[in-house]
Amino acid sequence: MPVPITIADDSAFSRKTVIQALPPEWDVLVYEAENGQEAIDAVKAGLADVLFLDLTMPEVDGFQVLHYLNQHHNKTVVIVISTDMRPDSIAQVSELGAYRCLKKPLSANELHQLLYEVGLI
Questions:
Q1: Which of 21, 71, 74, 80 is the most buried (most CB within 10 A)?
Q2: Angle at CA of residue 6, ends 5 and 12, nearest 5°
Q3: Quick one: angle between helices 87-95 and 62-72, nearest 10?
Q4: PROSITE patterns of this UniProt entry (predicted)?
Q5: From the CA atom positions of the chain, what is the Rg in Å?
Q6: For 3-117, which CATH superfamily applies?
């Protein structure tokens, strides 16, 4: 049965990059969110067992999404993909329950290894 995943990033190019980096053997249904509110809505609708999340987005940012998920949907696997790799940001997203942070630009090999490490593939 396919795993519902949502890719939340305000950049269409970044969302496409994540989609192209997904391992072909991973059976997924891909949904896209252009901002944090859409990401939260996707989680509420059951469209995000796994959420790939950018931190810098309009309306609701990635930190706010993580805070919401930490309070209401802590079973969602969140992998942050961002250019914001400051130690304080990494610490904050970790405290809020993100599984890992990956730096943009995304490496398909790094993503594949992470998905394997966390048991998603």
A1: 80
A2: 135
A3: 20
A4: RESPONSE_REGULATORY (PS50110)
A5: 13
A6: Response regulator (3.40.50.2300)
